[in-house]
Amino acid sequence: MAESTTGSTTTSITTTTTSLGPAAGTASGTGTEERTGTLARAVEVTRRYGDVLALDGVSLDIHAGELVGLLGPNGAGKSTLINLFVGLRRPTSGRMELFGGSPADAVRRRGIGVTPQETGLPPTLRVREVVDFTAAHYPRSIERGALLERFGLSGLERRQIGGLSGGQKRRLAVALAFVGDPRLVFLDEPTTGLDVEARRGLWDAIRDFHAEGGTVVLTSHYLEEIEALAERVVVIGHGRVLADGPIAEVQGIAGVRRVALTGGDLPELPGVLRTEREGDRVHLLTTDADALVRRLVRADVPFSDLEIRPTSLEEAFLTITARAPRDA
Ligand SMILES: Nc1ncnc2c1ncn2[C@@H]1O[C@H](COP(=O)(O)OP(=O)(O)OP(=O)(O)O)[C@@H](O)[C@H]1O
Known about the structure:
single chain; 328 residues; alpha/beta; Rossmann fold; 2 domains; 6-stranded mixed sheet; 4-stranded antiparallel sheet; 12 helices; 29% strand; binds adenosine-5'-triphosphate
């Protein structure tokens, strides 16, 4: 269910074209990228940290104009994948591509913006200094006042980073991903630690960027965030892509239904993925609710108040994750 856009005070980010030298064009696509519209790719990528297999044969294409949500439990490999996409780490095997070339290429990296999961901005620097310093690394940049307004940081230009609240620091960290007028932005859990209002403000800013043609890859633990923002969801578990498609389709892939009924002891029923009890109310999670109801009737067990509901994305995702055992 899409989150409705609140009446925000966001302004459209305008681009200052102070330096449109050759570098401005260098982050744009190669022939391959122009043909396929693929801005970033992972091809059969594996990444190990010692004994830990963080990514296990991941292939993923990010197309121009997409807003992709990476969803997965703690330790699934989401941050590792983002770090590979942005060239902070290299794959153990397989290939990463950014704008048709290597993410290790600094010129290509000028076309992206990144907010890592954790940022440690120097506490003694002022907001405007951090924004200007970051902007100086890009051939084009967003006007500082418009950027800060879009991220709810107006009036804080002269404030030292150490004097910002936790939420303001996080919003600044996210704003910095946009300062270089990127084509593609990677946001690793952008709204962690924000209250509801600040989170919605950030959603609006991300939506505005996307509406203007920007491409976004974000990870989130907030499922409502993925549902509210992303068009495409990639479910990652145990270092693998478990599902990839439009949100509705991913829910369909899981196909999980919640069959609730009031009753006593139930016999062993095939096709039940999970059973939950709340007093005498029993919830059965299944991919085939019709077959389950037929089995219940055939088993001749007394039950009442039968209810069948689709599951939330969270339930679908937990079910997919639980069904994907890790290879030895
Ligand atoms: N630098 C590292 N050294 C050793 N192991 C690491 C390192 N970074 C990540 N890992 C391990 O790799 C796996 C994937 O971690 P990653 O941070 O990519 O997952 P994640 O999906 O982003 O998790 P979270 O949602 O908790 O941030 C985990 O088992 C993690 O402990």
